[in-house]
Amino acid sequence: MTETASQRQKKPAARGITVERVWTTPGVHPYDEVTWESRDVVQTNWKTGETIFEQRGVEFPDFWSVNASSIVTTKYFRGAVGSESRERSLRQLIDRVVLTYTKAGKDHGYFATDDDAEVFEHELTWMLLHQVFSFNSPVWFNVGTPAPQQVSACFILAVDDTMDSILNWYREEGRIFKGGSGAGLNLSRIRSSKELLSSGGTASGPVSFMRGADASAGTIKSGGATRRAAKMVVLDVDHPDIEEFVETKAREEDKIRALRDAGFDMDLGGRDITSVQYQNANNSVRVSDEFMRAVENGTDFGLRARGTGEVIESVDARSLWQKIAQAAWECADPGIQYDDTINDWHTTPESGRINASNPCSEYMHLDNSSCNLASLNLLKFLTSEGTFDAEQFAKSVELVITAMDISICFADFPTDPIGETTRAFRQLGIGYANLGALLMASGLAYDSDGGRALAASITSLMTGVSYKRSAELAGVVGPYDGYARNAEAHKRVMRKHQAANDAIRTLHPMDKAVHAVATTAWAEGNRTGEENGWRNSQASVLAPTGTIGFMMDCDTTGIEPDFSLVKFKKLVGGGSMQIVNQTIPRALRKFGYTEETVEAIVAYIAEHGHVVDAPGLRPEHYEVFDCAIGTRSIKPMGHVRMMAAVQPFLSGAISKTVNMPEEATVEEVAEVYYEGWKAGLKALAIYRDNCKVGQPLSSGSSAKESGTPAATEEVKVEYRPVRRRLPKKRPANTTSFTVGGAQGYMISSSYPDDGLGELFLKMSKQGSTLAGMMDAFSIAVSIGLQYGVPLETYVEKFTNMRFEPAGLTDDPDVRMSASIMDYVFRRLALDYLPFETRSALGIHTAEERQRQLETGSYEPVDEYDADDDGEYDADVLAQSAPVEPARKVEAATASPAPAHAAPAAATPLPAQVHSSAELMEAIQGRTQDSPMCLTCGVKMRPAGSCYVCEGCGSTSGCS
Which catalytic reaction applies to this protein (predicted)? Predict the structure, then answer.
């Protein structure tokens, strides 16, 4: 009996891979290296007030943000809420996944020894625990549960020109949507409405069958675990029905406007929107080089019959191109997929062409196939010295790509054809997130040669190392089943990648160092592949990283630039605040700005949301802080150039939408699509602000957006601080002190409801210069306090200030002082600031310092109630303390911040703000054209070609 490839694969290997320790310490489990705390996760729909989720007492590391722990708890913990089987700790979640992967790796002969398997387990655990990378959502949903072990988020289906195949398409899509994933397919095999049936009648055409599929997706859209149905429909540019396809969604947009003006509820999720068709799919046109050259030359282009391939109609190529651009300008559809470029980088052409993509356009491979994804958090590899640790990144990629390949050994698939193709070609999609934050922290503009050189070098390194490890795995467990038939084509594509790597023009020491490691990886990987073949037919894509981006506490998703310079942040114990991105002070220090200038710039950004005219910031540095939206938003071609820089180093494509301003023209849309082809992209989509009507508008929407004329002139509200004067009779403390032999008196008065509000200092005889200066200083500080300047701000500024007199004091709590100012504000901190705040500033009483020597902790033992297990509840601690200085807000994804970090300008938020998109609306006074989350009512923000909700983690895409 002949042995099949899958049977050979399950045999123990003669040798396996050796797993090197990168992040872990021998003899220490990763869980024992972190501090765990208990949290309560409660989510509500802010519009209705309804509690949509509640689980109390969940366990997470103390450095995980509230948002990350909330989203993981609501989306990824398995088991019925309230039952004993419900997961309640991140340890349980990670163990469920990692132990399944490790067991499968051992069962299928991946590891040389059991020790290597244990190192693999610990390394994978450490990286997930510390948010270095994340698998795509289906892994967290399904792996290690009684449910089918589906690990893939991306699917491509196939449909032929038969009724059975078309009806099966509906069925297969429905099953995929039910599982919370998305699918794409190409309808170009279906005969056009201009061709005859064998019975003599006229065919319906693919657009008519799209109606049925769209209705099916709309019906099943709530069945997924975290998202609405996501789908991609592709049609070749030479299909006779191409013009009808191109105009389909634009005409529906006209219908939406007419119905809205007639009084119907046409908001997304509105009761009347279901009457509109084709809204559940992204549409893309597959253009060929032949068509694009006809556009260049202004010649005719032939539309071909599906059955015979003969030209049945000729159209003016430029006219059709204009219609594509016009439709995209009107409603953002269709996008473009560049067919010849896609198939020129195809590793398995002997097994079939690449005809379609997943809904977000990053996965492109054979029909009836799938891809599982994982993304690395790039900011985790930025060292405190400001360099990118290429060696550590390479070793981490090796580990992740190994785990991804192991998952195919035990994975389940929604249909048999998809399972067969995936097991035969083993498509993987490793990628990254936080590129925008990495570039900003490195002092590089997103739209700059330096930014593109670093992005290209990192992407080349990631894919080069992935294929190198794939070749090594092929030597252990064999190449993918389809390799022998496609060996020459696969090798050709590997040489194309390597040649593209050699063509990178590095500009700075950082990208030069990364590029050097990438060059070595490609050389060694291709040499090993020539001998062993490769385990995987594809390795890398750039996905939207929506929900998993929150899990990793990333500032930016996928390849995207930063969304905005100020962010919405949830707090432990409830509440929220506005913070300025933690990467901004890091970038400013890299440019050499002083701490005072950094603080002033950060404060300006907190107020205005941009850097233009920020005090002390040189204009040549503005570009580093350009974002996706708002003032100084990145120009459309800046997005295209970044995509072009990294595309040659990806097996698949890039999920990204090029943002265009509302005033962009149809010609500019056509230019972006044309330049995408010239730049060698595989796919491209645009979105022009306010081009779609069927979006919910926030309460701050302009009259122009709502389609109604303005009745009155807009009222501008200017916000200013209000002075809160102390009452005539107020509590006060009088303190006598001696600093370096100089005597003085301090009178501090507070509000009746607590809080310092007035300060007087007396150091010399009335009428002397020193007495006058002290009086003036006291008045200035008092007025500042009454206008709302936090006391901790003064404490931060004036402690450690050095001048004479200085030295010994007569205060047992402050034995030495660097100056009178140093003493005064240390004493005020001890008298008026809560323990947690002043402890963070290093200010303690004599009793607390003694306690620290005896017990190792400054904290009073009886100040908070202990839990049943004897540990203190971090949520209780956080709720009892006021908002700390902004420098204490977690830098969720950055490396440890340097000492004396600048305040992040954290301020409380208005009640109507629930996301970064709404925050930017409040700051800049213009509405962001994004949909509302159907789960919690929060305005979503773009993530690749999808949208993601910062409130609950729901996405509009498939990954």
Answer: a 2'-deoxyribonucleoside 5'-diphosphate + [thioredoxin]-disulfide + H2O = a ribonucleoside 5'-diphosphate + [thioredoxin]-dithiol
